[in-house]
Amino acid sequence: MLTRRPRRNRQSATIRQLVQETHLHLQDFIYPVFVTEGTQQPVEISSMPGIYRHSLDSLLKEIESCLEKGITAFAPFPQLPEAKKDKYAQESYRAGSLYLETIRQIKARFPEACLFTDVAMDPYSSDGHDGIVEAGTILNDETLEVLGKMAVAQAQAGADVVAPSDMMDGRVGYLRAALDQAGFQQVAIMAYTAKYASAFYGPFRDALDSAPKSGDKKTYQMDPANQREALIEAELDFTEGADFMMVKPALAYLDVISLLKQHFDIPIAAYNVSGEYAMIKAAAQNNWLDGERIMWESLLSIKRAGASIILSYFAKEVADLLDRS
Ligand code: PBG
Fold first, then answer.
1. 207 assigned to some structural domain
2. β-bridge partners, 188
3. Maximum distance among all Cα pairs of the chain, rounded to whole angstroms
4. pTM of the model as a whole
5. Cβ within 8 Å of residue 41, ≥6 positions away
6. Which residues constitute the domain of residue 72?
7. Mean pLDDT within 172-194
8. For the chain, which end, N or C, has fewer CB atoms within 10 Å of the first or last residue's CB respectively?
9. Per the domain annotation, does 11 fall within a domain?
10. Count: domains in the chain
11. Could you report the per-residue pLDDT of 194-216, keeping only the tens digit for each?
C-alpha cells in the first residue's frame, strides 16, 4: 500500500492549477527596448527576431501598443553613432541627447510607463567599455563620476528607477548620494548585482554596436564560475542602498538567483538576456523546439528560482499568451 501518491495531485487540470506553486503575471515583466537616431522605420535586429531598433517616434508607438497590452515597465537602451562616442561617454549626460530626450518624451506622453534606465558607459564609450579606459585598465572611481552625472541626468529626464549595469565598485552608494543630493530621493536604484562576464550578451552588443573595442569585461563583470562571490556584491549593493537586486544572465545562473533570494529581503530581478532569447528563437525557427512552450518553461524557471521581476524580450509574447489563455 502506498500512503503517498504524488500523482493524486496531478490528476485533473483543476487540481493541477490548485497546487501550482509558481505563476507568471504580466506585471512581473520589464520590457527592454532599443532606441536609435533618426525617424526611419523600426529595424529588426537580425539575431533577435521580433525585436527592433526604434527611432524615437516609432518607439513612442511601440510603448503605446505595449501599454495597451498591459506592459507598463520598460528598460530603454540607446544606440549611438560612433561619432557621438568618446572616451568619457560625455553624450550620456548631455542635455537633449537622444536617450535623455527619449526618457523625457515617453514620460510626457505616457506618465504611467515606468522607466528603468540604463546607467553604464558602454553605449557612449569609444572604447566600448563600461568604464573609462586608461592604458588598457578600466578606472573605477573616475568612472563613478560619469555614472553619477548620467544617473542624475536620467532622473531629471523622468526616470523612475536607474539601473547601473556597469559593475564598478561602489557605484550604488555613489549613485544614491548623487541622486539624493540632486533632490531625487524618490528615484530608486535597481542594481545589476551579479552581472557575469557572459557570452549570452552577444546579440545585445550587435544591436547597440557596444562590444568592447579591445579586451573583454572580465576585470569588472563576474566570473561565470563563481557563486559565493555574488553574496559579496549583494551585501555591498544592499548596504549601499539598492532597492532591487538583479542577476544577469538568468537561465545559466538560477542558483545565484535562488541564493540572493534566500539571503536578502529586497526584490530580486533577473535579466533573461539577448542570447537566451536568440537561442530559443533560432531553435523555434528551425522547428527544433516548440518556441512558445520553451519560452514559458524558461520564464517559469526564473520565477521559481526566486526572481519576482523578469527583464525579458519575450514580454510581448507573454502578454499575447496570457491574453489567449
Ligand atoms: C552593458 C549591458 C549589456 C547588457 C545590458 N547592459 C551587455 C554587456 O555587458 O556588454 C546585455 C543585455 C542583453 O544581452 O540582453 N552595460
1. yes
2. 161
3. 75
4. 0.97
5. 58
6. 21-324
7. 98
8. N
9. no
10. 1
11. 999 999 999 998 888 888 998 99
